[in-house]
Specification:
This protein has 13 helices and 8 strands. About 2% of the residues have low confidence. An 8-stranded mixed sheet has the order 3-2-1-4-7-6-8-5, sandwiched between helices. 44% of the residues lie in helices and 16% in strands.
Length: 325
């Protein structure tokens, strides 16, 4: 058995306001056989000093400093350095429950799982938890069973979409992550393509119906023009996912992935700054043309299929009106 049960990878960029809460929650984990790999991605605030100070008093912490290359690069560096039997990710402005790693690792060992997915809370910037009784784990995935997303008869429902696309509420078997979980570098929204790829390839996935991760709702994509330009990175990531459809066997999970892609594009079109809307629409049409060429339209839920068809075959103004519904 590996001496290190779990490698925790923490990408950091200008997180001085929250990084102490994040690291302290990891140092307080009940599971002690862990390593914490912090990748400082060119921070210009006091984050590098804070991380180095933690490393001086905590032997399980390793800090790597690099030039700013965005979160995908930081995650990849962490994966390459990881020595644990399993790998997980914690964003530097989030935090985790004391039993996060213990519960996830126990579930992984019990089922010899390739991936374990847990439930999570959404937290405001002041750490106040948004009140919700609804589980974010899809109800037909809550049983103590092993899942293969390629062969699921019933697709996960739409409310599970975000929790499926991110890497931070998951525990990945190390050999699987090191082979398939490589993140696109230099772009935002880097999670979904590599996570979907790895979920599609994994044969043994289990879910843990406990809220163990605290996701701090980010304001990084405000309505400012400069931040909205980041939304165009969606097209780079979606092109990667489209290529993965050809390269790997997604099976039934392809339908879920396609619907997530379409809904994500429409969501960002609705909220992007008006000065960038038409440019975003043109890029969106290019992606939709590929969907049509590959016969993916039949896999889109009917309501979003109508919107996608209007975007591709009708006017910008008609789609803009329909997208509001």
């Amino acid at each position: 058995m590996n001496e290190i049960a779990v490698s925790v990878i923490v990408p950091v960029f200008n997180s001085e306001r929250y990084i102490c809460d994040c690291i302290n929650s990891l140092r307080s984990q009940i599971l002690s056989s862990i390593e914490i790999i912090i990748i400082d991605d060119g921070s210009t605030d006091s984050s590098p000093l804070i991380c180095d100070n933690f490393a001086k008093k905590e032997p399980r912490i390793t800090v790597i400093h690099q030039k700013n290359q965005k979160q995908g690069s930081a995650r990849n560096v962490g994966i390459n350095l990881a020595k644990g039997e399993y790998i997980t990710f914690v964003d530097s402005d989030d935090w985790v429950a004391p039993t996060f790693l213990f519960d996830m690792y126990q579930k992984a060992i019990e089922f010899d799982a390739d991936i374990v997915i847990c439930d999570y809370y959404r937290a405001k910037s002041n750490s106040k938890i948004k009140k919700t009784k609804k589980s974010r784990i899809d109800k037909h995935l809550r049983k103590n069973e092993i899942y293969n997303l390629k062969t699921l008869k019933k697709q996960p429902s739409k409310h599970f979409g975000f929790g499926m696309a991110v890497c931070w509420n998951k525990l990945f078997k190390s050999n699987l992550a090191k082979k398939y979980l490589y993140f696109p570098e230099g772009v935002f929204f880097e999670d979904s393509a590599p996570v979907f790829r790895t979920l599609a390839i994994a044969n043994r996935i289990v879910t843990l119906n406990k809220k163990l991760y605290f996701y701090r709702i980010s304001n990084v994509l405000s309505t400012t023009h400069s931040n909205d330009i980041k939304r165009f990175d969606l097209f780079t990531v979606q092109n990667i996912l489209l290529n993965d459809f050809e390269k790997y066997e997604f099976g039934r999970f392809k339908k879920f992935s396609i619907n997530f892609m379409i809904k994500d594009l429409i969501k960002h079109f609705k909220s992007i700054d008006n000065s960038l809307k038409y440019k975003f629409y043109l890029e969106m049409k290019r992606i939709l043309f590929i969907f049509q060429k590959k016969n993916y339209f039949n896999d889109i839920d009917w309501f979003y299929r109508i919107k996608a068809s209007v975007a591709l075959n009708h006017t910008y103004f008609l789609f803009k009106l329909l997208s509001r519904l």
